[in-house]
Amino acid sequence: MGRRPNPLNPENPLHAFAIELRSLRDAAGAAGEVRATCMAAGITRGTYYAWLSGKQLPGRDALQLTVSAWGGDVNYWLTRRRRAEESISKKTPSPPAHEAPHDPDPATGLERAEFEYETTPHWNNSIFEREILTSLKLHTFMQKLYHLAKAPSVPDIARAAGVRGEDIDTVNMLIDYPLPTRNVEEDDLRRIRGKIIESLARLAREAGHASREVRKQEISAREALAELAMLRRRRSVPDVPGRNPAENPY
Predict the structure, then answer these.
(1) CATH match for 13-91 among 1.10.10, 1.10.260, 1.10.287, 3.30.70
(2) Which of 98, 105, 134, 237 has its CA 20 to 30 A from that of 128?
(3) Comparing C-alpha atoms, which of 235, 45, 238, 226 is closest to residue 129?
(4) Which tens digits make up the pLDDT trace of 86-100?
């Protein structure tokens, strides 16, 4: 029998947020399940359960991705999060001047990936794990462009990117998931990701967003895409001096 979740107190602003978030999760059906949510938002299982148990307030970017995946109203939830944060800050005393505040639990997506890269030694020792990290970073930047573009439909993205046929299914997959969920040639993945980035940036500008912000996310996404290609080239080289072949899981 599964463990019963801890009871939540609606008088606690963090718990009240979690109660409402659980309701959205339940209404989302399969999209609200832990694996699907972690893939869509680039978060860990621990983060997922921390949100729903009232132990942690989601970061803004991760909340946007999660609410979008669950079919909720992103603007409502960002406002709801801000109000919860304000209520929590009123109830939480500031630390004494001589005591440094604890580092916040890293948000999710890019911030979580960067935190793990810096604090987990094995990230530096496995090309495969660095690929996972870079894929998470790339997906986070693409999602930021997606929201700047006012969350266009997959057909709209495909038309703007000039892709057709089976490539449209690949666009759908890459918008929803940071890692491919079906076999696609790596050259095709890189080509289609590049087209998605270009089309989302164009749609974001057409939606009225400042060119500077759009350009920032576009450059970051393209840099992550280039880094991912470099890592995959390194993985495909069988004999690299100083590298342990056992680190390559492929």
Answers:
(1) 1.10.260
(2) 105
(3) 235
(4) 888 876 555 454 444
